[in-house]
């Protein structure tokens, strides 16, 4: 998933990739240990995800990518 900001919070990310239908559902997924960030179970729903981070949910992995349009030139 590409982000155009410095970071995205884990709960917002889960909603953005349609792994959670609501913030409440995202909170439960994280609290139950169903989400890993960079290979480690993450229990903080407010965890800041930055480009290069990998999120794994239910066997699916997502790479956080940054916006390359602001550099070089």
Key phrases:
2 helices; two-stranded antiparallel ribbon; alpha+beta; 4-stranded antiparallel β-sheet; 73 residues; globular; 6 strands; Structural Genomics Hypothetical 15.5 Kd Protein In mrcA-pckA Intergenic Region, Chain A
In short:
This protein is of the alpha+beta class and 73 residues long. It has helices at residues 10-16, 23-31; strands at 8-9, 35-37, 40-41, 48-49, 54-57, 60-63.
Low-pLDDT runs of 5+ residues are none
CATH uppermost class: Alpha Beta
Distance between the termini: 24 Å
CATH homologous superfamily title: RNA-binding S4 domain
SSE pattern: EHHEEEEE
Describe the main β-sheet briefly: 4 strands, antiparallel
Task: Give an overview of the whole structure.
- With 73 residues, the chain is α+β, with helices and mostly antiparallel strands.
- The protein has a single domain, classed as Structural Genomics Hypothetical 15.5 Kd Protein In mrcA-pckA Intergenic Region, Chain A (Roll).
- The protein is 22% helix and 23% strand.
- The strands form 2 sheets. It has a 4-stranded antiparallel beta sheet, with no helix packed on it. Strands 1-4 form a two-stranded antiparallel ribbon.
- The two termini are 24 Å apart.
- The model has no long low-confidence stretch (mean pLDDT 92).
Describe how the helices and strands are arranged.
Blueprint lengths: L7 E2 H7 L6 H9 L3 E3 L2 E2 L6 E2 L4 E4 L2 E4 L10
Antiparallel strand pairs: 1-4, 2-3, 2-5, 5-6
Helix pairs in contact: 1-2
């Amino acid at each position: 998933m590409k982000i155009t900001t410095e970071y995205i919070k884990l709960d917002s990310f889960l909603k953005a990739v349609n792994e959670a239908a609501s913030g409440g559902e995202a909170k439960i997924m994280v609290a139950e240990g169903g989400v890993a960030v960079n290979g480690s179970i993450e229990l903080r729903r407010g965890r800041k995800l930055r480009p290069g981070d990998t999120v794994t949910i239910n066997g699916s992995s997502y790479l956080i990518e940054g916006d390359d349009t602001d550099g070089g030139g």
